[in-house]
Every structure is written in structure tokens, then in C-alpha cells.
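Q: Here's a chain of 501 amino acids. Please give me its 3D structure as C-alpha cells.
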Amino acid sequence: MNKASMIVDKDFVVGKVDERIYGSFIEHLGRAVYGGIYESNHPTADEQGFRADVLELVKGLQVPIVRYPGGNFVSGYNWEDGVGPLNERPRRLELAWRTIEPNWIGFNEFIDWCKKANTEAMMAVNLGTRGVDEARNLVEYSNHPSGSYWSDLRVSHGYKDPHAVKTWCLGNEMDGPWQIGHKTATEYGRIANEAGKVMKWVDPTIELVACGSSNRGMATFPEWEAAVLDLAYETVDYLSIHQYYGNQKNDTPNFLAQSVGMDDYIHTVISTCDYIQAKKRGKKKIHLSFDEWNVWFHSHEQDKQLEPWTIAPPQLEDIYTHEDALLVGCMLISMLKRADRVKMACIAQLVNVIAPIMTENGGSAWKQTIYYPYMHASVFGRGEVLVPLVKSPKYDSSEFTDVPYVETVAIHSEEKSEVVVFAVNRHLEEAMLFEIDLRSFGGGRIMEHIVLEHEDLKATNTAEMPNRVQPHSSGNAAMTQEGKITASLGKASWNVIRIKV
């Protein structure tokens, strides 16, 4: 059996995990809202039309923050369309995804849903077709107590207390030619700075996220980041990065290696942020918000067949496989390894649209394969990330060299006296003997070893077979006398090893 090892020391810390790294995303796209979180005639619908079965699955993920209302959608959105009496709300042509937006759900209803889901809102403002004025008005409507036009309008809509939304995205993917109101880096940096400036004048306590590149493959990456931050460094607090991966060529070894490229992407953006900080002689560190990430490719062809100008068509409905769950696990580990700088992240999206949760209109809701690594990381991955010294056999794929078979990270919760190790075995044929050296902790005991594995890499969960791929407990982790833990990581598996220290 191949062997891998990791040494961690409780005094060598990468950084504290910001719980917002386990955030998600709801856009007015496909069935994320209508048929996802909201379906007024569903058997489980509450008094506002929110699906209780979906809420329970969301609560199981312990999602700390949810980005809303987009995404590409936000760049053509008038937020005023979604507040006030339902019978006065307009229907709009939604140009980003070529649908009809009925505005049955808007800002206030989403805040209500967040409270029911035990989460916070990350709001995005439209810097595509709109700008500074609308951005400041929305912050006033949301966060100002009362006594002004927009805050009093909120009160008249039945919301006496301010929503106190703290995290705001300054537009979405403004570097993309597909974006409504696409801008150059200079154009965007200027409007992001000016909008952010007045938003903070309305509420100085808010935090702002500027748009970084839409993905690593953009021709303007990373000059975009440098140009935007050069103009907005003093105003913004975070820079966003987005990345999706697919296995269009059915090359699983290369697909599972994609997180190596994600490591490099994160490193490059951090370096660019630090360059601008040095250029400005600044004291403020710009942190990262990885506010769109996931596997996305299964639904590309079926989306081409959809009729335009309908309400909530089944767009971007990827049905995820076991191998997709393994890469999602690797992506989570990649972000955790830079917990000192990646402070927020949003798996895109939460329900139906490239999502860990799927529903049938009028029917059931179930967990996709990717639900499990996301849930495990969110529930167990709170504390301080320890510097991992890892030795693992490696392989080369069609795009990457020296890919470690074992991708892993360890998190120490002093409050719980617990070390949690997340590990993916990328080897498709063989189990891996994994040794974890915890000598600095002076011993410990195994609490549990959770494994997600399946003989069929293409296995999926469906409405008919919702539990085909699901985790199970394994009894093969053991503590040695020297304070080391050994565990067998099954081939093509996601593992959670919890250790009481």
C-alpha cells in the first residue's frame, strides 16, 4: 500500500478560519429562487411561500452567509422592483439569462429567508446599468434606522428595524464581455471606488468586495486586479475571485488535479494585492472573497435547448457525480490552506443551480454528492488552520505535474480540544496509508473517521435514489503510542478524521 504523511504543530498556524469561507450564493437564475428556496404552492411551504424541506437541508450545511441577488443578474437589476406591494411589482425581461423576472421575491423577502435559514446576507449592487446613486440608496434603505426617504420607505414596507447588512459586493464580473454594462478595469475601478465611498458614508460599518477577474483564464488577469485596486484600495476591503471546473474530456486524473491550479490562482491574486499595498505604502491587507466556486459543466448542452423568456426554467442544473464531490473537497482544502487571506467564499449556488441541494417542483428535495464535503467542512472546519507538512506520492496529469495523491489540511479548535483532518485520496486504483503526526499535542484519541467513497466515479444522487452516494463511518483510523494517527484512505475518497486532543 502506498503511504503518505502529514506533520502539524499546534504553534504553527496558517490563520484562523473565518466562518464566511463556508458561504453560498442565491441568484435570480433558473430555479434557485422560484422552485428552489421559494414555491408558494409546495406542500411544505410556510406562510411566505418558502420551502421548509429546503430550509432544513440548508440549515444542515450551517451556511454563515449567502450572496444575493447575483451574479450576472445583478448587472441589469433594479432593486426597487423587488420591494413594496406584490401587486405593484413589474415583470421584467431578464437579459443576463434571457428569462422573465416576476419579482415575487425581492430584498426584504430574502432577508426574511436568511433569518429562517440562520444565515446572513451578502448583498450585491448593480454597477452595470446603474451606479453610485442606486448603491447608496440601497444601503440607506437596508441599514439606516429611519428619518430619511429610503429608510422610511423600508419602514412603510413593514420592516421597522434596519436589516444591518454588513457585506456588500460592488457589482459582478465586470471584466466579462458577457456582463451587462461591461467595463474596462479603469472604468470599473473608478465607479467601484466612488460607489463604495458613498455607501460607507451612509453606513461606515459595512465591508466592501471589489470585483476581481471572472476566472484565471481571462486575458486581463491579473492586470485587472492591479488596476482596480490601484483606484479603489483605500475604499474596498476584499477582492473577489471566481472559478469553475469541469471534466468535459472525461479525464478524471486531470480533473481531480484542478485544485493545484486553484492554489496557484489564489497565490497570484494575493501577490497582486500585496503589490498594490506596497505601492500605496498601505497598512491595510486586502483579503479575498472566493465568492463563486464549484464544478460546472454537466448542464452546458441542455441549457442551449431552453426556450427564452420563461419564468424559472431549469437552467444550470448539473447533476453531480462522486468524482465531482472529490474535487469540491480538494477546492475546500485549497481555500483552507490560505485561511490567512481567503476570508469569504461562496459555493455557487445553493439550490438547483449548480448546487448541493436539488428539488422537484411540487416534489422532494435531496442532497447532491457535493453536499457532503461542503457540509463536513462547514460543520467541522472551524478553528485555526495548522501549517501542513505533507509527504505524498505524486503523479502527472495532462495539465499538471507533481500532483500529490493525498490532498489534506488540519484544523485545530482549541475551544473543542479537537483537531479535524480533511483528506482526499486522488488515487483511482489504490488505498493510501496516511500517517498524521500530532506529537506537539501530547496525545489524543480518534473520535470518528467519516468516508465518502463509491465504486462508480460517475454515481449520482437523484430524486429516486437520493442516498446512492453518502458518507459512512470507518473504523480504520488508529492512534499509535508515539502520538501518531494512521488511517487507510480508500481509493478516490473524501475523508474527515476527528481527533480529541
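Q: Can you summarize the key feature?
A: The CA atoms of residues 58 and 117 lie 7 Å apart.
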